[in-house]
Specification:
mainly alpha; abc type-2 transporter like fold; 2 domains; four-stranded mixed sheet; 17 helices; 5% strand; elongated
């Protein structure tokens, strides 16, 4: 009887284009492509690579031959600047232009600060990126000239270095790596919610609104079997959505490699599969949440309102963990969603995971799912369910 109810709900909702779109296309395919691709591409755009050769337009390069030689030695292909510098940069014909004023050489000979002008368009990402790269190289060149000036006057340059501070990052991937690592649990959990969202509404509040629930309740079928059949139908769509999302994330990072953003992360098939296994208990918890909340409402619109508000909870750990460092302890690892975020981040970052944390996450999530499912059965056991 439970399997008959399960099959009935699946067939009914496969006819609903909205349910199929959000469960099989939007969450699993479009969401990873839009968010994952945009984030990785944005991090790549913001990352300055000094090993990658780039072209630099220089105005009056003949006034600073040593500077031009230094730039060429640091992977900068120096070319002549266009006639109208400002308009060319504004239109995007060239990203930036380095202008060397007439008094540059004179200021250097007299020991004065030599002027340089970088024409940049801050409204253009490529222009800002190139400006940061050139500015960093010019600071290195300035430090070299300062040291030569002091040596020429018989002064040891190290005299002015009273403190030598070294910033050693012990993380393997830095902030960008942490951001990309948290992207996988975010996409998986949000896709799970989207996968069962409309099915949970239609199979509970939708049936009550269409007045098709009463005939079901008159059948010689225990209420818990009725709820279990509906729960399993939601579970099928949530699980299918999570599997498709894992496949989509794997394919997305074949085109947008995380190494482009400076993070030595792992998004190979083994890592994605391991992450999906750790997140798999959430399919029961999320299905139970959707069923219980939708079953407690009187109409589809009311269910959409409440479940729409619940969409904040899957997203909350993603944003909280970007600003607050929550340690993995017994209490946090027993909390559904938060524990999966922390575990999946460690999988992507290739960190060692404590088996006790996995056990706490699985037990806490399944216990929460069981309590919620019990609440849904209690709701359907009341006559007021109609």
């Amino acid at each position: 009887m439970v399997l008959v109810m399960l099959w009935k709900e699946i067939i009914d909702n496969l006819r609903d284009r909205q349910t199929v779109f959000y469960a099989l296309l939007f969450g699993p395919v479009l969401l990873p492509l839009c968010i994952g691709g945009a984030l990785v591409a944005g991090l790549k755009q913001a990352t300055v690579s000094f090993d990658e050769p780039s072209e630099l337009a220089v105005q009056h390069a003949e006034r600073a031959p040593n500077l031009v030689q230094f730039l060429r030695a640091n992977n900068m292909d120096v070319v002549n600047a266009p006639a109208d510098v400002e308009d060319s940069v504004r239109r995007g014909d060239v990203p930036i232009v380095l202008s060397i004023p007439e008094d540059f050489s004179t200021a250097l000979r007299e020991g004065q600060p030599a002027p340089l002008v970088i024409h940049v368009n801050d409204g253009d990402k490529q222009s800002s990126k190139e400006a940061r790269k050139v500015s960093s190289l010019l600071r290195v060149y300035a430090q070299t000239l300062n040291a030569l000036r002091m040596q020429h006057r018989g002064i040891d340059p190290s005299v002015f270095n009273s403190i030598d501070v070294t910033l050693q990052d012990v993380s393997s991937n830095g902030f960008r790596g942490q951001l990309l690592a948290s992207l996988l649990p975010f996409l998986l959990i949000v896709a799970m919610v989207m996968g069962g969202f409309y099915l949970a509404i239609d199979t509970t509040a939708g049936e009550r609104e269409r007045q098709s629930l009463e005939p079901l309740l008159t059948l010689p079928l225990a209420r818990y079997k009725l709820v279990l059949g509906k729960f399993l139908a939601v579970l099928v769509f949530v699980t299918l959505s999570s599997v498709l999302t894992a496949v989509s994330v794997f394919l997305v990072f074949r085109f947008f490699s995380p190494e482009m953003a400076g993070g030595e992360l792992s998004f190979d098939a083994h890592t994605i599969f391991q992450a999906w296994l750790l997140a798999s208990p959430l399919v029961f918890f999320i299905s139970a949440v959707l069923m219980t909340v939708a079953a407690s409402t009187r109409s589809s619109k009311e269910a959409q309102t409440y479940l729409g508000l619940l969409m904040v909870f899957p997203m909350a750990p993603f944003f909280i963990l970007q600003f607050i460092n929550i340690k993995s302890v017994g209490i946090t690892m027993a909390l559904p969603m938060l524990s999966q975020y922390q575990l999946l981040e460690r999988v992507v970052l290739q960190d060692v995971i404590n088996p006790a944390h996995i056990a706490l996450s699985v037990v806490g999530t399944l216990v929460g799912a069981g309590l919620l499912l019990w609440g849904a059965i209690r709701l359907y056991s009341r006559e007021s369910v109609l």
